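Illustration 12: Ligase-associated DNA damage response exonuclease.
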Amino acid sequence: MSLLELTKSGLYCPQADVYIDPWRPVEMAICTHAHSDHARWGMKHYLAHHDSAEVMKLRLGADLSLETLGYGEKLVINGVQISLYPAGHIPGSAQIRLEYGGKIAVVSGDYKVEDDGLSEAFEPVRCHEFVSECTFGLPIYKWESQSEIFNQINSWWKENATAGRNSVLFAYSLGKAQRIIQNLDQEIGEVYVHGAIWNTNQALIRNGIELRDVKLVTADLPKSAYQGALIIAPPASMNTPWMKKFTPYQTGICSGWMAVRGSRRRRAADRGFILSDHADWEGLISAIEATEAEKVYLTHGNTASFGRFLKEEKGLDALELKTLFGEEDES
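Figure caption equivalent — predicted structure in token form:
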């Protein structure tokens, strides 16, 4: 007996009559986290972790029909015990654990195994069925420690400030931007953020998440205010008129894709920093092995090659799932 099936609306648990991260409107959606490829508009009711509440309201509407749980809390629907466990991806990200008739399934959503000091650290959950992303499911993806990456970012910022240049760093507005803010050396200069990041920060703060103070980029600030500053902006603002106020500047981009040769040049950034909110190759393998799952379902990413590896090298029953995940967070 499987607790999960893939339908045209998304992953479905028929025993509980609930969907996990559905992409079409349904009666009840359990959301692993608040990125828009996992928490979509149009569901009648939502269930998510407490720390996702304010961001989901910001993105999907203040009148959202939303119920929240803490990590480890249990909710029973039609005899199915539902609980949430940390995924380590962004604040409020959760793995969804379903238990029914002696069987346990876990839908992990997106996850990373390094503790970033902001999100609740990833917690392996033993189960019979495990649904895993594999965005970076190739051996070429091996992350350096977070501390090393932030040493690189701070050194780049300091070098720019010393040379009279401003630093514009592109990072996704939910999760990665806040992770960067928490790890910058603010002795170097002021930190400013784009409005999309500012609004996300305020939502997270309303949820009780502590973030360091930053300043909002506004139209009335003089150009001199940004001298030697680091400005964090979403990737969509790259090469737009919004950037003119920071001249002279250098640009950097934070993404796991920076591990691929040529990615920085294709995105027209001066520097690339390999910083991802997803697990790398070894992280995926360690997370999957820790579940002791009998069957592994693979979603967005290198599903075919990673699935072959799990079958041939690890002896696991691995299946690909064609989903609509992986569209938003720049990884």
